[in-house]
Amino acid sequence: MPAQAKKKAAAAQGQAPTSYETARLTRFLPLFCGLLAALLYVNTLGHEFTVDDATVITKNKITTKGLAAIPEILTTPYRAGFHDRKESLYRPLPLMVFAALYEIAGSRPWLYHMTNVLIYGVTAGLAAYLMVLLFTAQPPWVLGVMSLWFAVHPIHTEVVANVKSLDELLAALMIVLALWASLRYLKQPAVMWLLLTATCFFLALMSKESAVAGLLLVPLTWYYFRVPSRRAYVLVALWMAGSLLLYLLLRYQALGALVNFEKIEPINNSLAAAGDRYDQRLATALYIIGLYIKLLFIPHPLSYDYSYNSIPLKDFGDPAVWLILLLSLGLAYVMLRGLQRKKAYTYGIWFFALTLAPVANIFLMIESTMAERFLFLPSLGFCMTIPLVLVRKNPSQHLSRGFAAILPPAWYRLFLPFFLVLSLKTIDRNRDWKDNYTLLQHDVQTNPNSARIRYALGSTIIFEKALPEADDQRRRQWLQEGIAHLQAGLEILNYYGEAWFNLGFAYNELDEYEKAIACFERARMHMQKLSAVHWVQMGLAYGESGRYKEAYAALHQALALNDTAFDAYNNMGLFFSRQGKQDSALHYLHRALQLRPINSKALYNMGNVFAALGDYPQAIAYYRKALHYEPQFVDALTNMGNCYAVQQQYDSALVIYHRALAIDPHHHNLRSNLSLTYRLKGDTAAARKFGLRP
User: Fold this and answer.
1) What is the DSSP string of 35-100?
2) Which of 351, 574, 583, 677 shows its CA 20 to 30 Å from the CA of 35?
3) How many of the other CB atoms lie within 10 Å of CB of 115?
């Protein structure tokens, strides 16, 4: 039979593509998938930081040191620069990248988003290249479906759009590179390829702990697709074990232990609410695996959070749990049979299972119930499996050249519209990640039972919408809206300390101090550790309610934690002044002004102290300073006018009062002060105009 006829016959039987086709796929498919993957996320480049980005970047006192922080990053836990609690996370590589980016771009988010987009594009391209290497015997359309599905899958939106998820991106990239390098070693047995394999595995571990799955993925990949010697297995195992040992040594040095979890709270992982009911934990974990599989097939609706009580605890009385258990057992059987027979499609199932296992809450409970970002690397196994199952059912699909080799006409009607829908879903979901408010407003609709989403949305409205708002009426509306979401979150989980605290903060801003006190006292019951900020807010609420003894105790607690807490000194001065203890007030206000010499509130409070002491010229001097930094400060203008009036400088007082009235025509004291001052001047007509009868 002629060579060309043999080639056509082989194609008709679904046999391996020619070396020509493989070479074309190796060049074209990775480049196309990488570019497409990056392009889908271009609309994230103008986004802000969202959710927990700040904990590892802008509010992280280590990362914000820039490149100088790298030695400290290597020797401290993941969020050491944000809080000082114990944790079991050690991920120095993404933090080092953030430190380098902070050195260049500071707190401007565009470069961080661009970094995520570029790394995602590279990862998608390399994943396509890896699949070409592994599945050379498969028809090209299978390789195309695998690669394109992974590139466009909307389940990846959290990983790319959320800057903090660089840890997932780097871990996946390094695992793919480790697999590629290990395959190169089998083709060209040189130490450099073993070294590269071990190095990439080490960097994956330094990115995220779940990358430990790579220790099994490399030998598994060899077993399925190559025929290595026993010596090769031993060598790669030793090199990768060395990488793991080095990582564990660094981890131990940074954390003081290999595993350093404090008590896992239900707000972080709903399974913790099961207590000693391991059957409930297992049933719920199995149910979540079912949700993961569902999201891989149908990525809608999506949510950035699945914590308490998005997924209520399950038990084995739930038919859905039994269905997922039977599915899992069936897949386990298929995996074991496929392992024995080296069935290509079962490699994808093994890949999915091994990479999901570290975060599945079955073998080890982690500080998260469920997350879409956990599916990033496992989704690669999923995207391998489905096309391989399809080709197994339709082995006669023949080969062709060009783009049709990737998706032959028979599959256009199915996959191209499907990939188009997935791409549009990805682009649309990216828009939700624009900023905190946009993301939370969307996700509270799709996941209203998440206490954390309610807390985050309420807090975002209070701190990002209400506090900067200049219009008092609109500001109060924002505060009420934030309060409503916090209360909804507390109905879901009523021992969420941070939510109680932020609710109290909002009531403070509304001058509803008794409600604030009740919230702060609930917060104290449920928070393990209070910061200076917490104590300051409690002190403010107590003081404004006239409970000065409790106010001073709270403010002293704040100063014990932070002796540069400006608000603690300022509030102490304010409350001592109200009690008539002006000497004590002066002491604390002087300290406050040493910390912030141009703070208008502290200057105003100091003016009030001197006014109470009868030193009106000094009081006026402080009011002027306050007005220099805040010209629209109506209370400072009012009290300055009062000081002039007390000194019988009525003309000066009237000028100041009118200036204040132009800013706030509805101020409760100004009109009566003006009327009284005109009366004292003998101008009864003007006095009558402003409401006081002669």
Assistant:
1) HHHHHTTGGGTT----TTHHHHTTT-TTGGGGGGGHHHHHTS-TTTTT--S--S---HHHHHHHHH
2) 351
3) 18
Give percent above pLDDT 70 in the chain. Answer: 93
DSSP string, 358-383: GGSSSSS--S-S--GGGGHHHHHHHH
The tens digit of pLDDT for each residue in 72-83 reads 999 999 999 998
Q: What tens digit of pLDDT does each residue of 226-240 get?
A: 999 999 999 999 999
Mean pLDDT of 277-288: 96
Confidence (pLDDT) at 594: 97
**Which pTM value belongs to this model?**
0.90
Count CB atoms within 10 A of the CB of residue 103: 14
**Residue 409: its pLDDT value, please?**
61
Where are the alpha helices (H) located in 109-139, listed in sequence order? Answer: 110-134
- pLDDT tens digits for 195-227? 999 999 999 999 999 999 999 999 999 999 999
b/e map 617-635, b = 16+ CB within 10 Å: ebbbbbbebbbeebeebbb
At CB < 8 A and 24+ separation, what contacts does 113-118 make? Answer: 113/44, 113/45, 113/46, 113/47, 113/161, 113/163, 114/45, 115/166, 116/41, 116/44, 116/159, 116/160, 116/161, 116/163, 116/165, 116/166, 116/169, 117/38, 117/41, 117/42, 117/44, 117/45, 117/160, 118/38
Q: What is the DSSP letter of 1?
A: -
Q: How far is CA 514 from CA 70, 492, 510, 531, 545, in A?
A: 47, 23, 11, 21, 7
Rounded distance between C-alpha atoms, residue 427 and residue 43, angstroms:
7
401 contact partners, CB below 8 Å, separation of at least 6: 21, 24
pLDDT surpassing 70 at residue 1:
no
What pLDDT sits at residue 669?
A: 82
Q: Give me the percent of the chain exceeding a pLDDT of 90.
A: 84
Q: Which of 558, 591, 561, 560 is nearest to 573 (CA)?
A: 591
Q: What is the pLDDT of residue 13?
A: 36
Radius of gyration from C-alpha coordinates of the chain: 32
Tell me how far apart the alpha carbons of residues 235 and 185 are, in angstroms, rounded to a whole number.
11
Tokens coding 597: 């010499």
pLDDT digits (tens, 9 = 90+) for 118-170: 999 999 999 999 999 999 888 888 898 999 999 999 999 999 999 999 999 99
The tens digit of pLDDT for each residue in 668-692 reads: 788 889 999 999 998 888 888 887 4
* Residue in the structure block whose two tokens are 């104290």: 524
Nearest alpha-carbon partner for 478 in 506, 497, 500, 505 = 506
- Which residue, 376, 390, 338, 351, is CA-closest to 144? 390
Segments in 447-512 forming alpha helices (H): 451-460, 472-492, 497-509
- Give the tokens for residue 183: 């395959």
- CA 604, 606, 607, 613 dihedral sign is positive
pLDDT confidence bin for 693, thresholds 50/70/90: very low
pLDDT for residue 377: 98
CA 178 to chain centre: 28
